[in-house]
Design goal:
By secondary structure, the protein is α+β, with helices and mostly antiparallel strands. It is built from 15 helices and 23 strands. The protein has two domains: 102-429 and 492-563, no CATH class; 430-491, Glutathione synthase lid domain (Dna Ligase, domain 1, 2-Layer Sandwich), CATH 3.30.1490.50. 32% of the residues lie in helices and 25% in strands. Strands 6, 8, 9, 19, 20, 21 and 22 form a seven-stranded antiparallel β-sheet that branches. It is globular and about 65 Å long.
Amino acid sequence: MGAICSSLAVSHSSIAVSYLSSSSATSFWHYSPNLIPNIIATLPTYRAGFSHTTLQVVGCRMMKPSSSSPPVSLGFSQSGETEEVQEEVVLKPFPASLSISPALLENLVYDALVWSSLNGLVVGDKSVKRSGTSPGVGMVHAPFALLPMPIQEGFWKQACELAPIFNELVDRVSLDGKFLQDSLSRTKKVDAFTSRLLDIHSKMLEINKKEVIRLGLHRSDYMLDAETALLYQIELNTISSSFAGLGCLVSNLHRHLLNQHGKDLGLNPKRVPGNTAVRQFAEALAKAWNEFDNKRAVVMFVVQPEERNMYDQHWLSFLLKEIHGVNTIRKTLAEIAGEGQLLLDGSLAIGGQIVAVVYFRAGYSPNDYPSESEWNARLMMERSTAIKCPSISYHLVGTKKIQQELAKPLVLERFLEDEDAAKLRKCFAGLWSLDDSEVVKTAIERPELFVLKPQREGGGNNIYGDDVKEMLLKLQNEKSQEQAAYILMQRIFPTASLSYLVREGICHQNNAISELGIYGAYLRNNDKVIMNDHCGYLMRTKDSSSNEGGVATGFAVLDSVYLT
C-alpha cells in the first residue's frame, strides 16, 4: 500500500506535505470497515522550496488500505514548477494564469466596498454601542472574500443532492422520542443545557404533544478533505441556520465583480451559481404560515437582545412581507416570557397577536437563558399550537451526540432506505464517543488528528491540538462522567489556497480554507410533504491557521462558490 496525504499547508514560500504511511499503520475508519483499529505510528513531513508565491496546489489521491496502487508522487521542482503527478482527482484553486496586480486589487476592493454599502451586505459595527439593537446605527460591511472559492462541480452537486435526504432524516429521527432520550441520557447527567432541553422534550412526550405541521430550515456544513479528495460533513444545523440573507448577497457581489473585471482575472461570472437561500427560506416560512390557516397571524423571529447580524434576519422578514404578504415580529425570549400567553385553544399570543410560526434565531446557547423566564418562554412556545422552527425534537436531532449516534453501524438504516443511507454515509467523517478507549488512547497520542466537540452551537466551542490531549487526560484522571458531554471527530484537512479577505475596509492576503454549507427546507403537514428542497448555499472562508470557522464570532468571512 502507498502513502496517503493527510494535510497540505501552503505558505508564501513553501508547501509542506505531511502524509500517513500506510505501511506502518491503518488509517481512519472510512478507509476500512473497522473503527480506527490502529492509528499512525509516524507522520513524516517533507518540504519543498519554491521561488514563487503564486502556487497551484494539486489534490491528493484517494487511497484505501486494500489498494495496491503505487504511492502518490508529490514532485515539486525548486523553481516552483509542478511536476506531473499521477492522481484521480485534481483540485485547482484558480486558473494558473490568475494574477492580480496592485492596481487591479485596489479597484476590486473599492468596487466591492461600494457594492456592499449600496446593497445591504452589512452587519452592526461592534465598536458602536447601539449597533446590535437599533437598525441603521453603526453599520459596517460584513466580512467577505474578494473572489469566490473554487470547488469541483461534482462535489457541489453531491452536497446539493444530500440536502433533501438530511431533511427527511431530521424529520424521521425527531419522531423517535425514545431514541433521542436514550441517546442523550448520559449527556443529560453532565450537561445542564442539554438536560433542560431534554426536560422540555420529556414534557411534550408526557402530554402526547404532536407537531402535526413540522418545519425545518437546516444547513449541512462540509469540508473537502485533501487527504482523500472526499467531501465530509462537519455538522448538521437544525436551529438558527444563519446567513441565508447575507450569503446570497456575497454571491451577487462576486458575480458583479467578475462581470466588471472577469476578463482581467480570467474568470467567468457564470461559474458562480445563483444563490436562492433567502428566497426559499422565506417561501418555506410563508408556506408554513399558510398551513396554519390564520391570515391575521404573524411569524415571530426569536432573537437575541443584541444582534449585530440583524440585517441577515431582516432580509428574510423583508421578503416575507414583500413577496408573500406575511407580517413578522421580533421578540427576545425575555419579551416572550413577559408578553406571551397560551390561549384556551392552545394558540400562542404575543401582545394580542396570534403567532403562526416561531422562527428561532436564538435559543441555541446557554447564554440565551440567563434566568428561568427564558426557559418558561421556551416551554410555553413548545406547548402551543404554533409551528416551531425548530421544534424541540428537531433541535435535539442537531446535537453533536445525535450526529455521532447516527454514524454508528446500522443506526442510520433505522430511519432511511438503504440507498439514501449509503449516500449519507459517504460524507460521514470519523465520529466516536469517549467510551471508545482505543480511539481515546489514539487521540491522546495524536491529538492533531482529532477535534473534541461539546454539545454546543454558535462557534468557538471546539477543542483542538494539544488541548484535546489535556482535556482527555483530565477527564480520564478525574474518572469524570463529564466525558459524556463530548464526542471525538476525525479532523479534516482541506487544501489551503491564496485568498483575499476583506474586513473593516482592509484587504488581507491569506492562505485560507473554506467550509461549504448547503441549506435545506422541509415542510410537512401530517402525511403530506409540502416542501423538501435544497435551498442555496453558504461558503465561509478563514485563515488556514484558524481552527474555528464562525463568521458572527469573527473567525471567518462570507464567500461564494466558483464551479470548476
